[in-house]
Amino acid sequence: MEPEHIDVTAETGLPRGPGTHQDCRGVASVLSRVGDKWSVLVIMLLRDGPRRFNELKRMINGISQRMLTLTLRGLERDGLVTRTVFPTIPPRVDYELTDLGRGLAVPVMALGEWAFAHLPEIEGARNDFDARNGEG
Amino acid sequence: MEPEHIDVTAETGLPRGPGTHQDCRGVASVLSRVGDKWSVLVIMLLRDGPRRFNELKRMINGISQRMLTLTLRGLERDGLVTRTVFPTIPPRVDYELTDLGRGLAVPVMALGEWAFAHLPEIEGARNDFDARNGEG
DNA sequence: CAGGATCCGAGGCGATACTG
DNA sequence: CAGTATCGCCTCGGATCCTG
Hints:
mainly alpha; 3 strands; Arc Repressor Mutant, subunit A; homodimer; 3-stranded antiparallel beta sheet; DNA-binding
């Protein structure tokens, strides 16, 4: 029996039987959301309640309006965030975490806390590595 | 009091006082590792014990040798993986998870399990979104 | 076997300008 | 206010060739 063979097949969603590695790609797509700096930031900010577009933009301070738009679209597409338009003048749009989004925030927070707790080790390791590599 | 202001300042590591948002960047750098498809895959594969370079390459099946090299270098740099060279002919290099790496695997697994459990919801949301957007 | 060097195309992302 | 559209850089990543 060969070791588990991970097949990251492209978008060609082939029939591969049940319990297959198709799931891998799906899981990976969620992980990549977490890897996306802006997405996690937005999710964390929305944990306190709904926010407006420019409100988020100001809070993050460094994101372009383009990236904020794309980020929010992605989160909305994944069902993590709802987008509510108030047809007033000037227009107002509220973004709010869904239950799914709040659920995702839990393991993400756990991961973030681990990262925070081990930052010294990691940065130490980086320095050591760079030092070794830099002067050989 | 204004809402929490997240400043994702660039690499200009400024003095910002203690308990500052500098940590944000550090945490983000760890999260981005998780977002990196290959890194997570490699970590998961290494949980069963050390592996050789081409062994990993075959198991992953789809990664270029270049990306595997870069991925392993990154993991090594962060102190998540050790690289052991056996000066034989032909050469042999073993990669193994460190305790730090095994520690990271825990919250990552939790995240992965959440993702797996909620894949149907997420993919359903995506389909709905795409349908709404596609035919307006 | 393990990986360095190089080339090159696709896409991520910021900056800017325009709209309802 | 909350976007869309466009441009242009610039990194990421695959493919290929070469080495100890």
